[in-house]
Amino acid sequence: MLARVPLLAGLTILAIAIAIGSVVIGHGIRDRNKNDVITVTGSAKKRITSDYVVWDLSITSQQPSASDAAHELGGWTTSIRSFLTKEGVEPAELTVDPISTETVGSGTIRGYRLTRSFEIRSSRVRDIAAVAEHSSRLLAGGVPLSAEAPQYVYTKLPSLRPSLLAEATKDAQHRGQILVEATGAHLGGLRGVDVGVFQVTSPNSTEVEDYGVYDTSTLDKDVTAVVNVTFALK
Q: Are 144 and 75 within 8 A, CB to CB?
């Protein structure tokens, strides 16, 4: 009878160990299932038209004396103002900066360089684009205008972001379903979303930057949203 006590104790311990092991294994399987996920990239693109334009231009005169440079610059400034008015640029759209002055020469002043800058900001995008196209008339008239290319901007991007993100997420879900169902599994609930930067590019461009692209050279643009979505598997 006494000899059977150690045997019974050993069997009891073994049974407890098996039970504990089963619980641990069960939890391991459940934990593994919790970690069975798939991350899918989704994207959405929309073609938009810029609704704001910025156009910068300037004129510079260099003469031996400051007064001669100022006189020449004044005449050219009058010509530019007259041209812009005739082209339909409104006073509220035009900013004329004060004259900037610098001397020419090191040690001995050999002349003066005077510059005046102009900036046009407007929501009348196509009208201002036409003015920029016609600015060659100033050059033909002897005014040595220096002009930047117009910068085309889309001001409603914040309101566009939610719908694009929703479309990109649906695209990720659709791709995930195709991939998972091909293996006989099923797509589960959403586990996480990583939103990428928005890319604003010229139409049909493949340009992508880690910190985003914002093209201002074209009137029409493509706005692309990218998301990495993690789903559970079941």
A: no
Question: Model's pTM, two decimal places?
Answer: 0.77
Pairing relationship of beta strands 100-104 and 52-63 according to DSSP bridges: unpaired
Query: Cα–Cα distance between 23 and 64 in angstroms, integer?
Result: 94
- Token pair recorded at residue 178: 């195709």
Domain extents in the chain: 36-49+156-233, 52-151
Name the token pair of 214: 């914002």
Q: How far is CA 7 from the centre of its chain?
A: 74
* Each residue's pLDDT tens digit, 97-140: 999 999 998 889 999 999 999 999 999 999 999 999 999 999 99
- Contact predicate 47/222, CB 8 Å: yes
First to last CA, the chain: 53
C-alpha 113/C-alpha 60 separation (Å) is 7
Q: Which of 105, 112, 116, 108 is nearest to 63 (CA)?
A: 112
CATH 3.30.110.170 fits 36-49+156-233, yes or no: yes
Superfamily covering domain 52-151? Protein of unknown function (DUF541), domain 2 (3.30.70.2970)
Regions in the chain scoring below 50 on pLDDT: 1-32
